[in-house]
Amino acid sequence: MHHPRFRRPTLRLARARLVTATAALLLLPIAFSARAISFWGDEAEPTPARPAAPQPAAPADAAQLDAPTVTLPNFAALARRLSPEVVNISTTITPASGPQFRSPFGGGPEGDPFHEFWEPFEKHFRRGFKQRSLGSGFIIDRSGTILTNNHVVENADEIVVRLSNQKEFKATVVGRDSKTDVAVIKIEAGEELNAVTLGDSDKLEVGEWVMAIGNPFGLENTITAGIVSGKSRFIGQGSYDDFIQTDAAINPGNSGGPLVNVRGEVVGINSAIFSRTGGNIGIGFAIPINLVKELLPQLREKGKVVRGWLGVYIQKVTPEIAESLGVPDPQGALVADLMRDSPAAKGGLQVGDVIVEFDGQPINESNDLPLLVARTTVGKKVKVKIIRRGDEKMLTVEVGELKDEEVAASSGKAEDFGLSVQNLTPEIAESIGVDPETRGVVVVGVEPGSAADEAGLRRGDVVLEVNREPVETLAAYKKALENAAGKKNLLFLVRRGDNTIFLAVKPGK
Questions:
Q1: 384 Rama sector, left if φ>0, alpha if ψ -120 to 50, beta otherwise
Q2: pTM score above 0.85
């Protein structure tokens, strides 16, 4: 991370206030003397007596005037206690294929006079330019184990940790997890260190006071405070998003630092900000510490995290899709596609199933499923409750191990019919990047502003089903539309590139 130069604040604001105050003092006599000025011809009017201010009636009960006492947290005491447990992390990265030095004359072959001149410079610069970045972390045990963000230490050739007493130590990586942006590093300080207390992020409430500690823009031991603005935020970083949102100021360099509650317990790792300028605008995000505590044993023992895997592509259940599928409420995770030979396929899950419960845990939002599956022990047989064609069913699935595949969440815009289709030929399939053996009809035109357009259908989409009826030919497509006449929603199963998604079309619009 490169940080802009920090400029010393100017005194313009203070000077402006001084000028304003002086002007106000000069104007005061003029304002009061204006009341004594009169003009010839004006009759002097007696100054009316000012009526006495009415006295408030005494309340029947004096206790009614007592205001509730609000006690703010003592951030000063928290800062003194926790600052020694927060560290500055600086890293050095040498790009494998970074900018290389090139002489302005191209170097020339051996024997060329310019070759001998530029060769020493080329040898020096050929290694590439080093990149340096700064971040934060915090000590979690007295032996020198430190938690931080993965993006702070990823690909680093050298990691240097500086304590609050300015002592520096080189650190080694114990374990990293890019999917949750968590990393564990270790230093050998030769002495026992102060360590933080890890709290319970599940007990956090929106509106609760929190404090962030870190090194924004390289400014060490910076303390900012605010409240918890939201929980369980999905910000598009990955399938395992579950962030705490806070308005405590978080800026570049704060990454990896702790988010602390008023009891001095770490409840999160500061990780990201939402900003159009690169600076804090009051929307920061932290990784819940309970999620980190689940990963810690694996990161320490294996250096990585092993996760459960189902092998399904899922999407959100909208009200329109819920009505089309006979689901009582727009909840759960809709199975849009299955990976071949995956645990889900072997367990009997089908495209169009809505997963409403996994291993006894309800699935309210589609984003809940990847987190629950990831936390499940590999090889465990779990009960999965689904709704299929309006009926509840219970299946048993043996959870596999996530490797290169990921549980993906695909979402189709399903809001609201100007649609032109034709039979899909192997030649067309190849041209649009679809398996030539795919059977369906291809979308060749979408009328702008139509119901199909509003539903998210695109030119090049391959329609596989309409209201759960396969449409392998144009005739089958037309027949499916006839059978669906009068329905409020048409549920399309669409193949788009390598993904399969459901889209709900409102033909009445």
A1: beta
A2: no
